[in-house]
Design brief:
The complex is a heterodimer. Chain A has helices at residues 6-9, 14-27, 40-47, 51-63, 84-94, 98-120, 123-141, 145-162, 166-180, 187-191, 196-212, 216-254; strands at 67-70, 73-76. By secondary structure, chain A is mainly alpha-helical. By secondary structure, chain B is an all-alpha fold. In chain B, 81% of the residues lie in helices and 0% in strands. Chain B contains eight helices and no strands. Classes of the chains: A mainly alpha, B mainly alpha. Chains A and B meet through α2, α5, α6 and α9 of A and α1, α2, α5 and α8 of B.
Chain lengths: 258, 186
């Protein structure tokens, strides 16, 4: 009985192995929350499994809340939980300095993510980071602040991915997704500000260069400085906005009243 | 492990994913190492008297359970202690995220916490680390708190790797013991 191999050698059900494989793809960030899976036939071909096995695996993952079926397609569900985004949104509304909190948290996290990326990025990761940086540059030159803000978020996502830490990818990447939806703060306010865009570009360049040079310390310092700048710039913009609002209100009360 | 003894799927898909992929344990501890450093510094700088009361209460509960050798209570107090620290950072975003991850910690996701605690030496080490962290926070020593938090998580990682090695050796020994039984029966 001592060398009974039953539990060790016999492969698990094929559908369970397929489910685990799909889970790994989600965990590592190859498949992302909200993403639509390829049609069943194509996916079965790609994974080289029968359609019944695949269908069983998909049903298992749906039961676990990892996949969801809607509008005829199968999508990756919200990995951080259905209420993660809305809870955070409520938090942003109720707490006066939550954008500051987000950036404070990010400062430390991004510093380490950039350092890990400088140490661990594969050649493929470095390529992606390079491409995403050039996309920022290109949009910057074409004076497209909205597109530039989007490219900005994708650049940071590539760095989280190159950290090769699944929690960094899922949690910081999840926050970056929210940033793209402007849940955390209005990025366009930042990008439309005179002079700010140029500084942001130079900061992204510094992070990019340090990671490409595989210099963890420089990457960390550059990422921390970038987040610190963003935080300072945002609070300055909010302050002047408040001042402007106050001035307008005073103006309305004295001169513009009925 | 048989399917029947598998725990029911938890609410957050990420928890399920991490639970069924033990290779993610190192990533989890590394992530916590990064967060714990930030949290220790902010808590040391910002804890209000009320925060400090909460941290102290959790720490005393931990100490009492440790002295009384009540494992379950000690593990629960351990989590309460860390939660009180995250709360004292006054960073709503970090608190929101860590509340979800601390759920993971209490969940026995990656390792058998009870087995950790049953190991007398490990238990004593963990208590010393919690005490160092508590004392640094009490004297508002940010650098000291960061060092204490950092070495606590690092120690957990080391203990986790040792525990896994020991588990692997144990199953080898179990197989051999089974063979001897078979020899005697033969």
């Amino acid at each position: 009985m001592g060398y009974t191999a039953k539990n060790h050698i016999r492969p698990k059900k094929l559908s369970e192995a397929v489910a685990r494989h799909l889970e790994s793809l989600i965990l590592e960030g190859t498949l992302r929350s909200g993403e639509r899976l390829p049609p069943e036939r194509e996916l079965a071909l790609r994974l080289d499994v029968s359609r019944p096995s695949l269908r069983e695996a998909l049903a298992t993952l749906e039961q676990r809340g990892i996949l969801e079926t809607r509008r005829g397609g199968t999508f990756v569900g919200p990995i951080l939980g259905a209420t993660f985004a809305s809870d955070l949104q409520d938090l942003m509304r109720s707490s006066p300095d939550s954008p500051g909190d987000y950036l404070e948290f990010r400062s430390g996290m991004d510093g380490m993510a950039a350092a890990f990326a400088a140490e661990r990025a594969s050649d493929i990761d470095l390529d992606t980071i390079g491409q995403r940086f050039r996309a920022i540059e290109e949009r910057h030159q074409r004076e497209q602040p909205d597109d530039e803000a989007d490219a900005d978020a994708l650049f940071h996502l590539a760095i989280y991915e190159a950290s090769h830490n699944v929690l960094m990818i899922q949690i910081m990447g999840g926050l970056a997704d929210l940033l793209r939806q402007d849940v955390l703060y209005n990025r366009f306010k930042l990008y439309n500000r005179q002079g700010v865009r140029e500084l942001l570009l130079e900061q992204h360049r510094a992070i990019h260069d340090a990671i490409q040079a595989r210099d963890p310390q420089a990457a960390r310092a550059a990422a921390e400085a970038h987040v610190a700048f963003t935080r300072a710039a945002l609070s300055e913009i909010d302050r002047t906005d408040t001042r402007l609002e106050l001035a307008l209100r005073r103006f309305a009360e004295t001169d513009g009243g009925p | 492990m048989s399917d029947a003894s598998s725990p029911p799927p938890p609410a957050t898909p990420l928890v399920w994913l991490l639970r069924s992929h033990p290779e993610a344990a190192e990533d989890y501890l590394e992530f916590r190492w990064v967060v714990a450093r930030i949290a220790a510094r902010l808590a040391a700088e910002r804890a209000t008297p009320e925060d400090m009361q909460r941290i102290t209460a959790a720490f005393q509960r931990l100490e009492q359970a440790h002295d009384d050798q009540r494992l379950d209570e000690e593990m629960a107090a351990d989590i309460a202690f860390h939660r009180a620290i995250y709360r004292a950072t006054h960073n709503a975003v970090m608190h929101h995220i860590m509340e979800r991850l601390l759920g993971l910690l209490g969940d026995d996701v990656f390792y058998d916490r009870a087995a950790f605690y049953r190991h007398g030496e490990t238990r004593a080490d963990l208590m010393d680390q919690h005490r160092a962290l508590y004392q640094a926070l009490a004297r508002k020593d940010a650098a000291g708190a960061v060092t204490a938090a950092e070495s606590h998580i690092r120690y957990t990682g080391k203990a986790l790797r040792q525990w896994r090695t020991a588990q692997a050796r144990r199953s080898v020994a179990r197989r051999r013991a089974g063979r001897i039984g078979a020899d005697e029966e033969a």
